UniProtKB/TrEMBL annotation:
This is Major facilitator superfamily (MFS) profile domain-containing protein. The chain crosses the membrane at residues 127-155, 161-182, 194-213, 219-240, 252-274, 286-306, 318-337, 349-368, 389-413, 425-447, 459-480, 492-513, 525-548, 606-624. Residues 1-59 are annotated as: Disordered. PANTHER family: DRUG TRANSPORTER, PUTATIVE (AFU_ORTHOLOGUE AFUA_3G08530)-RELATED, MAJOR FACILITATOR SUPERFAMILY. It comes from Tuber aestivum.
Amino acid sequence: MALERAVTREEQSTAISPQTPTAQESFNLRSSAGSAPGGAATAVPRTGNFTETNSASAGSRLCPSFSYSEKFQDCQNSSGIEIREGDENAAATEVAVGAGVAPDAAATPHALAPEGQQEGLSHRRKAIIVLALCLCVFLAALDQTIITTAIPIIAAQFNSATGYTWIGSSYLLTSAAFMPAWGKLSDIWGRKPVLLSAATIFLIGSILCAAAQNLGMLLAGRVLQGLGAGGQLGLVNVTISDLIAVRERGVYLSYIGLTWAFASAIGPVLGGVFTEKVTWRLCFWINVPIAVLSMSSLICLLHLQSPKITVKEGLKRVDWLGIALVASGTVLFLLGVEFGGVSHPWDSPIVICFILFGILILCSFVYVEWRVAKLPIMPIKLFTNRTNACAYFVGLLHGFIFIAGCYFIPLYFQAVRGDTALMAGVYVLPYVMALSVVSAISGLIIARTARIPTFPAATNIRQVIWAAVTMMTLGAGLIIDLDRTSGWDKIVIYQIIAGMGCGPLFQSPLIAIHANIDHRDVGTATVAFTFLRTLGTALAICIGLVVFQNSMQSQSHDLAGGRLPDEVLDAISGHSAASSVGFVQTLEPAERAVARDAYARGLSTMWDFFLAVSACCFLFSLGIRKHYLSRQVNSTQPAKVRRRKTGEDEHEGV
């Protein structure tokens, strides 16, 4: 049922006069089936707040935007004038003119731009912005793994045994712990300033690490790096969501996903090259020029409307209790999981206390966000919907399988096949390349099929998720079969299948969430998804190592009795198994073959666990329902529009 209201030039100037105290008129529309006399159509029987604005051209029509109804999300008009539903939390509203928006962004209601006009962004400028955002993700993901091959040398240089654990974990802990806070901060002060703040913190941390003269200075830099990386990983997807319509979003989110995957996989290779050929400090110095280039591009080209709020008012709106609870609970829980079976036995008081108190604090966080916080950093309502809850679990469990491929497939090449760390990083490229290519292809499929009128785009997302999870489960099951004698045909094909399954799951569950939530919650929902996936990667490494170590320990009894010397058994048993790969290469050929077979069995047992995780991921994917995919840019912080005149025509650009 079309909504129209004929407004003459005189009526427009009367309806919105300079003397009017506000630039909006709230009214309730009532309707009947027919049109009113005189050509003015009667209104739909729907109540809501709408904004009536003056048009630059005579005879333009006004069209309301129903932000909360799938049936009306595509409401457009021929004149380029849109009427927006008012923001419940702000007094002002925004008005969209053509592809742009009014400069007044005191409030942050939904900004809608028709498909193809997406806030006036030219293709070239959009490409540069997305490239700059990909560089942010590249650096944040790279520093998770680039240091792994350099840690032994760094720990030896600073003469610290504890450095082996803390150099890596300090980055991961702070990245995951503070990630939820960045999303809410960007809602308060704006995406661009908060994202640039996170990038600046990461840059300072990188410089501090590169110039570190002792372990304490290095750990301080890693903490700052992790703090900034958490903001970059979370806010990049949010910024993409502010710029791109839901139906087109899969393409751009796939670029982010493949960047993350490529950086995570290439990190150990670069770290090994830098450490062996130059210096381990280059692992951090390389961040500086890339970060400066990315930040400069975003400063010059990314123009998003930020809420006009003072620092004092913004600080009052921050959920400080929620930030403290989620940060402390996450750190304690991950520390307990990381210490268990490595530096302390699982039944030791410190491990039990860390895990127990971490869980209790996280439960308190859930209660505070549900009942206490006025502006929660992670609203519980995001998880009460079946589709959202299932999509979040898919993202969490996808983090398990994705990082398992990046972390444990190289271990297979080193421990079972006897390759160097550098070559192990090269041999895992089939997994990474398959993941990257299929991630991009799946994003294109979602975007292209969404434009076909006879093809239900919402159903397409579910099919992409189901196909991806099926391939991921198949790949995890096939990798179990790899042993010391496996041929390269098996090794390459199995990696490709696993990568094809992991690739599409970087963006498709997030798109399903975006299609099912109010646009005001896109920021917190996106950061929550990234947080859970990051948490999944952290848990996967810890739990996977525990399963592997326990399997190696259980084999020590079978390998005793003369098959292996006692010193070799001690080296490859329990928590020392992963760090004894180099020692195994020095054994006699017969002993080395026995040890490598033991490693193969241990890794197969570990992949049994990941196969079960992937099967659970498939079950959760079945709970994702079909939802409408809007072809409009629905943003709480739209791109600013700058007008420029060429002759008598006006063009809009960002």
